[in-house]
């Protein structure tokens, strides 16, 4: 049919969106445009290097294209995948080592938490609650009293009901009711005109201690979460009109617990984004509410009197059960008792058998995570293993450590010049590690200034070398693949790069022969810094331009005559020997890089099997 | 320069005359000429008499060369640069005028309805006239690019034969290939 022949001539000129529109014109057009051949061509055009590894081919290139094209912006990667309804929060409060509060909050309750506070408490903490930044409010019922001289510690653990996993948000830590950094308990100013004002929030100290995400290392430090008790001084409860100095408060009644992520979290979406990148890998069966046990069970311990006798004593009776009991109950050593009990297991066989009794470990678990124990049904097979696993990960700053190595990675790099693919290659992660070693010495010397700048750079050696004329339009795409889970993520979505290095989509050009050239020093330019926000601490979103792609090249003139003196403006042709990826100040070393890669959204499941080249180079000419 | 005349016969048995130089714009005709089959009339069973004059008009305009204005603009300037180390500004200007003039001609030439477009495209394909094929295919593509299905139907005079249910479940493709240059 002639009509169809004409369409077949036209459709290869269209992009995916237009081709999809064509499929909606009429049945005839749908059948013609639906031919997977056109979609295969589109895939090959956009992701040539992936097509080379993609075996077996997808059942439908159109579906592959749709899935992949949808996710072409990095800044969509951290959008939340779960809602508040999937969350629950385990909150425990200890006063002088006694559990005074232990509760599981559904995420939906926290959403409306602020509505559930008594009006006078809300009014009292107005200043704090109205500060910018999203606060999780956990209403405390029944409320409890704390004397201000008491030692207070708090632990908050988040649970996800959808995947039955847990992550510690605020590891059990002693908090100072006076609000000393770094582990302070926020105290909102009370009756501003009558009180000594203790304004923590805008204090420079506060700001120092609220680094949220450290852009230099990409690690999340524990103190970035602030726990505040929403309380009423007892005096004000007894007499609402009392005028009260802060220093005169001796007893407070707690009506709520507020979690505050400082400037990092501005709204619910930010919070979900933040929670999402945490390490949800503590698999625990979190099923229906069953108050399993906690303090009551501890009361039944046979050697409780012994324990009581030695509390506070640092001298431990040597070969006696009580040493174990001491490990369990020593009030201020909650963080170390795991190692104590574990050490006891290594003393001799007899001690091992005794200390290995899961009962002790159950007590430890109940002591450290009472609210989790209340939800933990069925109980784990071994409380010791549960404890070990959970205690190991009790610091937030361990959460982002990598789970895969460079050997698990591969990188798909495509370079277009004037819309023609001139380079399309798959690099194994291990090659990138030593990428810099693989550069010819003269190229390294030329780009020394750039390569020696602080910050880790991924160097992908380009062989065979590609030649590019300066006036050409160059675009680059970099996609990372994980061989361990067979998934892909877009690192640098195909984007036009300007060989002159104009922000935001610039191609870095290292200064060449500093003394003879017009110097174009981008790196320390204020513009550069503006365009390299890495992770924006205000929104926690990763913006696409935080990855910088540089071509490691030699001007043709210098290749022909190594001693040539050359002005930048006189370069007309370059030979490319490598591609460098640079994450700005965010990534200082390989671990940082792995951490960064880890939090990306590895959800493009694509079958990638070992070294196999797609039959035709770009998958088009076969037809 | 005098040139041999060649006669072409359309599918509806009408005969047209064309210079050999012009006919060489068509790869198909060129092969026939070079193959020595010039006796009499060349039958073109796939090209009708309302399209053939249009094809001949294009061939006359383009004589020996084989490209659209776009091709000449890109290819021509590049070639000059490579061959001539001393860049001739006058020549560049003349080149520019030629390209502009050709573009204007193409614009007028391409002013016809979409049925002619189809036939011309197929004729160009059949006769292997690359410049004309590029021109027509590009025009058809430009009538599709960035448009909604409704707009495409209007451009090509097509009635949708989908049931309302089928329209509902149509796929939507989020393709940012063209937009992703934009910095957000």
Automatic annotation (TrEMBL), chain A:
InterPro entries: At5g39250-like, F-box-like_dom_sf, F-box_dom
Domain of life (superkingdom): Eukaryota
F-box domain residues: 5-44, 339-366
Chain ranges passing through the membrane: none
Gene3D superfamilies attached to this UniProt entry: 1.20.1280.50
Protein name: F-box domain-containing protein
Species this protein is from: Protea cynaroides
Upper taxonomic lineage: Eukaryota, Viridiplantae, Streptophyta, Embryophyta, Tracheophyta
TrEMBL record, chain B:
Family designation: Belongs to the SKP1 family.
Coiled coil location: none
Gene3D superfamilies reported in the protein's UniProt record: Potassium Channel Kv1.1, Chain A
Ranges for domain SKP1 component POZ: 5-62
Keyword Lipoprotein in annotation: no
Lineage of the organism: Eukaryota, Viridiplantae, Streptophyta, Embryophyta, Tracheophyta
Quaternary structure annotation from Swiss-Prot or TrEMBL: Part of a SCF (SKP1-cullin-F-box) protein ligase complex.
Gene Ontology annotations of biological process type: jasmonic acid mediated signaling pathway; protein ubiquitination; ubiquitin-dependent protein catabolic process
Function: Involved in ubiquitination and subsequent proteasomal degradation of target proteins. Together with CUL1, RBX1 and a F-box protein, it forms a SCF E3 ubiquitin ligase complex. The functional specificity of this complex depends on the type of F-box protein. In the SCF complex, it serves as an adapter that links the F-box protein to CUL1.
Protein origin, superkingdom: Eukaryota
Protein name as it appears in the record: SKP1-like protein
Region described as Disordered: 69-88
């Amino acid at each position: 049919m002639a009509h169809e022949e004409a369409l077949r001539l036209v459709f290869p000129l269209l992009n995916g969106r237009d081709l999809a529109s064509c499929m909606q014109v009429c049945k005839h057009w749908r059948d013609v445009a639906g031919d997977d051949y056109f979609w295969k061509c589109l895939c090959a055009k956009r992701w040539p290097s992936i097509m080379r590894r993609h075996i077996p081919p997808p059942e439908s290139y159109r579906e592959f294209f749709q899935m992949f094209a949808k996710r072409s912006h990095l800044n969509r990667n951290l959008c939340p995948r779960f809602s508040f309804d999937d969350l629950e929060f385990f909150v425990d409060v200890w006063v002088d080592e006694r559990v005074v509060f232990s509760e599981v909050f559904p995420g939906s309750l926290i959403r409306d938490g602020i509505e559930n506070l008594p009006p006078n408490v809300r009014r009292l903490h107005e200043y704090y609650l109205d500060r910018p930044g999203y606060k999780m409010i956990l209403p405390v019922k029944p409320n409890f009293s704390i004397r201000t001289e008491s030692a207070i510690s708090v632990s908050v653990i988040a649970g996800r009901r959808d995947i039955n996993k847990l992550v510690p948000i605020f590891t059990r830590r002693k908090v100072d009711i006076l609000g000393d950094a770094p582990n302070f308990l926020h105290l909102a100013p009370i009756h501003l005109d009558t009180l000594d004002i203790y304004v923590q929030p805008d204090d420079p100290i506060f700001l120092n201690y609220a680094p949220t995400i450290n852009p230099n290392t990409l690690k999340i430090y524990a103190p970035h979460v602030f726990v505040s008790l929403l309380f009423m001084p007892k005096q004000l409860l007894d007499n609402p009109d009392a005028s009260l100095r802060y220093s005169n408060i001796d007893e407070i009644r707690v009506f709520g617990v507020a979690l505050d992520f400082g400037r990092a979290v501005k709204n619910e979406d930010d919070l979900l984004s933040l929670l999402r990148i945490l390490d949800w890998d503590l698999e625990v069966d979190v099923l229906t509410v069953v108050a399993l046990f906690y303090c009551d069970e501890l009361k039944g311990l046979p050697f409780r009197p012994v324990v009581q006798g030695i509390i506070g004593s640092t001298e431990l009776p040597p070969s006696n059960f009580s040493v174990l009991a001491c490990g369990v109950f020593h009030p201020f050593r909650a963080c170390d008792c795991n190692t104590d009990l574990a050490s006891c297991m290594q003393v001799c066989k007899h001690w091992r058998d005794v200390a290995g009794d899961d009962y002790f470990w159950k007590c430890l678990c109940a002591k450290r995570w009472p609210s989790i124990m209340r939800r933990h049904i069925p109980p784990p097979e071994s409380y010791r293993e549960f404890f070990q696993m959970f205690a190991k990960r009790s610091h937030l700053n361990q959460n982002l450590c990598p789970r895969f190595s460079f050997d698990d990675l591969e990188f798909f790099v495509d370079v277009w010049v004037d819309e023609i693919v001139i380079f399309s290659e798959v690099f194994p992660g291990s090659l990138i590690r030593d990428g810099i070693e693989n550069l010819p010495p003269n190229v390294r010397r030329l780009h020394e200034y750039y390569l020696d700048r602080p910050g880790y750079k991924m160097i992908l050696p380009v062989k065979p070398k590609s030649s590019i004329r300066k006036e050409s339009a160059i675009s680059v795409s970099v996609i990372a693949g994980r061989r361990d889970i067979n998934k892909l993520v877009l690192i640098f979505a195909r984007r036009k790069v300007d060989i002159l290095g104009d922000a935001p989509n610039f191609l870095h050009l290292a200064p060449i022969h500093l003394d003879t050239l017009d110097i174009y020093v981008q790196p320390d330019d204020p513009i550069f810094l503006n365009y390299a926000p890495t992770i924006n601490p205000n929104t926690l979103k990763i913006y696409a331009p935080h990855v910088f792609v540089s071509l490691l090249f030699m001007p043709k003139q210098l290749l022909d005559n190594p001693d040539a003196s050359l002005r930048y403006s006189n370069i007309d042709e370059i030979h490319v020997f490598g591609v460098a990826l640079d994450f700005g100040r965010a990534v200082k070393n390989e671990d940082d890089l792995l951490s960064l890669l880890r939090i990306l959204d590895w959800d493009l499941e694509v079958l990638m099997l070992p070294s196999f080249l797609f039959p035709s180079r770009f998958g088009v000419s076969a037809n | 320069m005098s040139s041999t005349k060649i006669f072409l016969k359309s599918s509806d048995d009408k005969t047209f005359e064309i210079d050999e130089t012009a006919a060489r714009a068509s790869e198909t005709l060129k092969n026939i000429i070079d193959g020595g089959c010039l006796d009499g009339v060349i039958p073109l069973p796939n090209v009708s008499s309302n399209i053939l004059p249009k094809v001949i008009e294009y061939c006359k305009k383009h004589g020996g060369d084989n490209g659209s204005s776009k091709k000449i603009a890109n290819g021509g300037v590049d070639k000059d640069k490579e061959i001539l180390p001393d860049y001739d500004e006058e020549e560049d200007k003349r080149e520019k005028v030629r390209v502009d003039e050709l573009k204007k001609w193409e614009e007028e030439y391409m002013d016809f309805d979409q049925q002619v477009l189809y036939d011309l495209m197929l004729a160009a394909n059949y006769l292997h006239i690359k410049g004309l094929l590029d021109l027509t295919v590009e025009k058809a593509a430009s009538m599709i690019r960035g448009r909604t299905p409704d707009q495409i139907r209007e451009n090509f005079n097509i009635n949708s034969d989908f049931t309302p249910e089928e329209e509902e479940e149509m796929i939507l493709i989020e393709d940012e290939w063209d937009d992703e240059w934009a910095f957000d």
